[in-house]
Structures are given as C-alpha cells and as structure tokens.
Amino acid sequence: MKKILKPAEPEEVVYYSDFSGKLLDHNMVPVTVKIKCGYGSKYDDSSVELHLTDKGLNNLLVYLKDRLSKETKEEFQRQVDSSCQSSKNDYNVDLLKELI
C-alpha cells in the first residue's frame, strides 16, 4: 500500500506490505504483484497492484504452485530448460522454478 505523506512535487511516500501491513524498508517495494482483468471477466478492465515483501511473495507462490495445472508446470519447465541452455542471465528462471 502506498501512502502519500506530502502531496507535493516530488511526492514523499512510504510503502507498506499489503499482506502484513508492515512498513517496507528504505521506501522501496521489493515485490509488486499486478492483477489485470480483461474483457469478458466478471471484473472487466479492473486491476489491482499489491506491494509485498519477499516473504509475502513466497506465500503467494506456494498458493499458486498448489493450484497450477500439470501442463502449466511443464511449460514453465520448458522455459527454464531453454533459458539454462542460453548464455544470458534470465532472472525469470528463479521465479519459474518456485512454481514448478
């Protein structure tokens, strides 16, 4: 959660974890999770942005991992395998591994 302390230019803000409610360190957001609902959804064109700590993200990843289909996990594994074969440093791999 972003709270504006002084509505001025530039704005002064602090960030709180939307899961724990605790103040995030150094006025930085380690993790931002965005959910955007598209056309045809019950929440058509709505979106929400959550600010989390790494611990909050890990809790969310555990929840998602338990609910992902076998096919989705297999696709994530293919992406991990493909990235590991290339020479570039792909940070998505670490996140995908948590979901497999």
Short descriptors:
100 residues; 21% strand; single chain; two-stranded antiparallel sheet; 2 domains; two-stranded antiparallel ribbon
List the topology elements.
Layout: E1 2-6, E2 12-15, E3 31-36, E4 47-52, H1 54-67, H2 70-85, H3 92-99
Antiparallel strand pairs: 1-2, 3-4
Helix pairs in contact: 2-3
Can you walk me through this structure?
There is one protein chain. The protein is α+β, with helices and mostly antiparallel strands. The chain folds into 2 domains: 1-64, no CATH class; 68-100. 38% of the residues lie in helices and 21% in strands. The chain has 3 helices and 4 strands, in the order ββββααα. The chain has helices at residues 54-67, 70-85, 92-99; strands at residues 2-6, 12-15, 31-36, 47-52. The chain has a two-stranded antiparallel ribbon with strand order 1-2. Strands 3-4 form a two-stranded antiparallel ribbon. Strand 1 and strand 2 form a beta hairpin. Helix 2 runs antiparallel to helix 3 (92-99). The longest helix is centred in the C-terminal third of the chain and has 16 residues, at 70-85. The two termini are 29 Å apart. The model has no long low-confidence stretch (mean pLDDT 87).
Rg, Cα atoms, Å: 17 Å
Note the total helix count: 3
Order of helices and strands: EEEEHHH
User: Which strand-content bin applies to the residues?
Assistant: 15-25%
Average pLDDT for all residues: 87
Q: Major beta sheet, specifics? A: 2 strands, antiparallel
Structural class: alpha+beta
The total count of strands amounts to 4
Indicate how many domains the architecture comprises: 2
Question: What proportion of the residues is helical, as a percent range?
Answer: 25-40%
N→C terminal distance: 29 Å
Shape: extended
Main sheet strand line-up: 1-2
Instruction: Give start-end ranges of low-pLDDT stretches.
Output: none
